[in-house]
């Protein structure tokens, strides 16, 4: 089968052919985060703020892999995540984005059915598990919390100066398969809201094949602002078939028996 993607021929509705879990899994991601009514997110007063330790990255690769653009620091990076719903310390692996071809679509998670124009995923893996010692092993481990992904919605507004080094680089990785070594340092901490207190959290999966059900998801309530020009820069990135990547987001999956917790009322 042609490698997976987001077109009619190889998009989310076809992924079950290579990844049966797409249709049989009971903890698939993304989901629609419902805030009122029966199956709504339940406030949990025990949920603490998320703690990130992100020293500025000094060495990283920025890659267009045909289905997203990904920022991956060298293995030696010391960035870590803890707190929130987590009991262990997680190591930063990479961040990437999902976006649409207009401002009314693009995010993977939704809030009461509302999509944002894009979503940023900060991917981490449990560095204290005795069962694995790399991201790749973590994905294949069947451990329900092998990974922790922080999701941030992007909305259109003022230009985001902290993300400018990334959005300015998009034209350099226009072609699928192309990558550049990131010039200079990148301060990811500056991209995030100061307080990481208000979030939804639930057990889910990767939103792309292999769709492994190994992710503790933490999706923040407060969107990050980017300018229209910055959004347009994502929409000019090619998918390797001579077309821009426009809509690399998976539709929401059934919640099944899962509950979503909210760290805020
Ligand atoms: O659901 B996500 O889009 O957000 C969180 C997240 C993390 C990782 C991916 N996929 C990756 S890294 N696949 C390549 C790979 C897959 C399996 C082993 C190694 C390498 C997708 C997502
Ligand atoms: Zn993602």
UniProtKB/TrEMBL annotation:
SMART domains: Carb_anhydrase (SM01057). Signal peptide: none annotated. SUPFAM superfamilies: Carbonic anhydrase. It is an enzyme of class 4 (lyase). It comes from the Eukaryota. One of its GO terms (molecular function) is carbonate dehydratase activity. Keywords: Lyase, Metal-binding, Zinc. Belongs to the alpha-carbonic anhydrase family. This is Carbonic anhydrase. It comes from Desmophyllum pertusum. The gene is CA2_1.
